Sequence to fold (72 residues):
Amino acid sequence: MRAVWQPGAVRTTLVVVGLLLAVVGALWTFQGLGYVGGSPMTDESVWAVVGPIVAGLGVALAWVAWRGPGNR
Fold:
């Protein structure tokens, strides 16, 4: 039997992945800035740069997926 992807399931999955990327990116940003301790990433400036990039990509993915193909 072949798996059939439903457009709503793909859309929901992309929105969830985008939101998870946004949360992870925010966490990395706060770790890089030293606000979240207890990690080797704390106070490492590379994470203060990578974090917002990942968060921005996550927000963009969620936004595009949420709007759907008919609203572009």
Notes: The chain has a mean pLDDT of 90. Residues 20 and 58 are 7 Å apart (CA to CA). The radius of gyration is 16 Å. The chain is about 70% helix and 0% strand.
